[in-house]
Amino acid sequence: EDQVTQSPEALRLQEGESSSLNCSYTVSGLRGLFWYRQDPGKGPEFLFTLYSAGEEKEKERLKATLTKKESFLHITAPKPEDSATYLCAVPISGGYNKLIFGAGTRLAVHP
Amino acid sequence: GAGVSQSPSNKVTEKGKDVELRCDPISGHTALYWYRQRLGQGLEFLIYFQGNSAPDKSGLPSDRFSAERTGESVSTLTIQRTQQEDSAVYLCASSVSILSNQPQHFGDGTRLSIL
């Protein structure tokens, strides 16, 4: 059964304290992994797509990496404005672009 | 506008009433998706449309749920005889095509509350 699991559920950081969020997936024939950011009361905002093991993408203080079983979202020297819920998603096996999402990691960065 | 637009942003209705939710995709996007997000949970796929192809309805939770899309424009999601368990945020997304390498871009959702 296709599955996406994110950990931790919640993470509290001090401003400038770097950390990583994990996304583990079980799907036959990975055809991409997507990271999104979601602010309260808003829809998910697209961040990255990763396609193959070893691939990395960066945007400001965020870097996403991918292995054959999981993806990490590394946050370097976070700021309070990085506080949000981070979601990862993969297309289900054999299902075009039908995405299965993890439950997300709620990140709070305090000054 | 440049992004996906959804209306209404909030809807409160009584149990048993029908509701209709609207989604305007990004211009030029041929694929359109509906998801449901219950409080504290991940997004749950409901249905997608790709151009004039038959929609994939495999995620609709019951026959009270239906959706329509005219061509590559507006879509409506209808819930008949609403139940309290239908309370959730309903999110719409669109992408350039249905291919799995195309990111989906989301609207801000309709927050549905069933009394």
Rg of chain A, rounded, reads 13 Å
Whole-Å distance between the termini of chain B?
33 Å
What is the N-to-C order of secondary-structure elements of chain A (H for helix, E for strand)? EEEEEEEEEEE
Number of helices of chain B: 0
Shape of chain B: globular
> Using only CA atoms, what is the Rg of chain B?
13 Å
Biggest pleated sheet of chain A: 6 strands, mixed
pLDDT under 50 segments of chain B (min length 5)? none
Work out the helicity level of chain B: under 10%
Structural class designation of chain B: mainly beta
Oligomer: heterodimer
Mean pLDDT of chain A: 94
What does the model show?
By secondary structure, chain A is mostly beta strands. Helix content of chain A is 0%, strand content 56%. Chain A is built from no helices and 11 strands. In chain A, a hairpin with a 2-residue loop joins strand 6 (56-59) and strand 7. Chain B is built from no helices and 10 strands. With 115 residues, chain B is mainly beta. The A-B interface holds A 4, 31-32, 34, 36, 41-46, 49, 51, 87, 89, 91, 95-104 and B 4, 31, 33, 35, 40-45, 48, 50, 56, 58-59, 91, 93, 95, 98-109.
